[in-house]
Amino acid sequence: MNVEQILSQQQSELDEMAQLLAQELDAIVARDHELLISVVERKVELLRSMQQRDQHIATFIEQGKVDITTFQEQVNQINQLLAECKNQNDVNQIAANQSQIASQKLKDILFGKSQTGYDKTGKSISLPNPIARGLKA
Predict the structure, then answer these.
(1) Alpha-carbon separation of residue 118 from 41, 113, 127 (angstroms)
(2) What is the average pLDDT across 67-82?
(3) Helix/strand number for the chain, H first, E second
């Protein structure tokens, strides 16, 4: 396999990664845990494959078998796709964190944990939870 073929495979893997990241965000928003697990598993497989391809290309370069500047346009496209995937991954991480926070707040409300508020001086105070008051589960 030559460098051009490896770069083409890497580019198509990054295209697939971009699609997976979109699916991952949909799964996070929909709270579809089964889909999320399958997407994450596929992401891990793709990342391993891309890492192997990077190592293969590095070996070619170290051995002087290829001048990577010959493929600069393709490398630039790959770097652009990689940057887009990284940005989408950051968005997904924020969405997952927000979803986790919302779930925790809902759990706190349902289990009667007191809420936090502020008094007129701006100090944080604990407020009773009116929803769970007097409930015994």
Answers:
(1) 43, 16, 9
(2) 90
(3) 3, 2
Which pTM was predicted?
Answer: 0.74
CATH topology of domain 3-115: Methane Monooxygenase Hydroxylase; Chain G, domain 1 (1.20.58)
In whole angstroms, give the CA distance from residue 130 to residue 109.
9
Sorted by where each begins, the domain ranges of the chain are: 3-115
Handedness of CA 80, 82, 83, 89 (dihedral sign): positive
- Residue 44, C-beta contacts closer than 8 angstroms, at least 6 positions apart: none
Rounded Cα distance between 33 and 28, Å, is 8
**Quick one: average pLDDT of 107-135?**
66
